[in-house]
């Protein structure tokens, strides 16, 4: 993903960029269908697009929760999507040893929020030469993310993105402080708002994370209004039966309408 800053900007439309896809890679057919639908929408709306899908979910409340279909199988699906549709792809990594493995298949390595302070993990991701998207921990201030940026850059990689996903608010909820977006932009990197994970309701007694997907457009509108460079939205054609994070994903059928409204806001503030 050379000249990554240029590729994340549409100089004709002035639009934000989008990271979107299912929470986890559940299988090849559904991943390809989701990718094709999103690409049809983003091409129509002139929105630069990065396909998102986790090849494995390492952070689960219950040991019996879905974690993946197999690392190599899922990574090859991500590789196929990138190759056949000509779009960059992003996936999470969880341990330093995974960086080089995942980098062989995708364009962007994502550091999960809970792991954003893990120095060895950040350095390993940076050393692959891929774009590194670091999610801000729910437990951190926006200002503290400058140290994550420094770790990646000091490892010789200037291709960094920061993503906000809300702050811990009590035991079972999150809240978004929109002051953090411009503060993180002051570090000289693109800043993304994760519109779905910021609506999670973690630590439920059932062991399954809840969410408020009806507020996804609200979070997204506010993020665009304060100048976010990009949006992160997990989406699925059947969230109720998704194998991971269905409680806070946007229904795929609602994506085009949502993005169209966001473009109007973007145009109004340019």
Automatic annotation (TrEMBL):
GO terms for biological process: lipopolysaccharide biosynthetic process. Residues 15-263 form the DAHP synthetase I/KDSA domain. It is an enzyme of class 2 (transferase). One of its GO terms (cellular component) is cytoplasm. Pathway: Carbohydrate biosynthesis; 3-deoxy-D-manno-octulosonate biosynthesis; 3-deoxy-D-manno-octulosonate from D-ribulose 5-phosphate: step 2/3; Bacterial outer membrane biogenesis; lipopolysaccharide biosynthesis. Pfam families: DAHP_synth_1. This is 3-deoxy-8-phosphooctulonate synthase. The lineage of its organism: Bacteria, Pseudomonadati, Bacteroidota, Sphingobacteriia, Sphingobacteriales.
């Amino acid at each position: 993903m050379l000249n990554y800053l240029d590729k994340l900007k549409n100089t004709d439309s002035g639009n934000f960029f989008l990271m979107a896809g299912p929470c986890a890679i559940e299988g090849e057919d559904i991943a390809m269908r989701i990718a094709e639908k999103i690409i049809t929408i983003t091409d129509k709306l002139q929105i630069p697009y990065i396909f998102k899908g986790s090849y494995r979910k390492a952070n689960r409340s219950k040991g019996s929760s879905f974690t993946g279909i197999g690392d190599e199988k899922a990574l090859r699906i991500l590789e196929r999507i990138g190759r056949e549709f000509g779009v960059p792809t992003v996936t999470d990594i969880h341990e330093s040893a995974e960086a080089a493995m995942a980098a062989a298949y995708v364009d962007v390595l994502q550091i999960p929020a809970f792991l954003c302070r893990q120095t060895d993990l950040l350095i390993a991701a940076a050393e692959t030469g891929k774009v590194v998207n670091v999610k801000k921990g729910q437990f951190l201030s926006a200002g503290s993310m400058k140290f994550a940026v420094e770790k990646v850059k000091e490892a010789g990689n200037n291709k960094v993105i920061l993503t906000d996903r809300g702050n811990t608010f009590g035991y079972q909820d999150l809240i978004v402080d929109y002051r953090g977006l411009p503060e993180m932009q002051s570090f000289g990197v693109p800043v993304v708002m994760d519109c779905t994970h910021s609506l999670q309701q973690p630590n439920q007694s059932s062991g399954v994370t809840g969410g408020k997907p009806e507020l996804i457009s609200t979070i997204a509108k506010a993020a665009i209004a304060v100048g976010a460079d990009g949006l992160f939205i997990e989406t699925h054609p059947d969230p109720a039966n998704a194998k991971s994070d269905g409680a806070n994903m946007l229904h795929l059928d609602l994506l085009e309408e949502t993005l169209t409204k966001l473009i109007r806001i973007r145009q109004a503030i340019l």
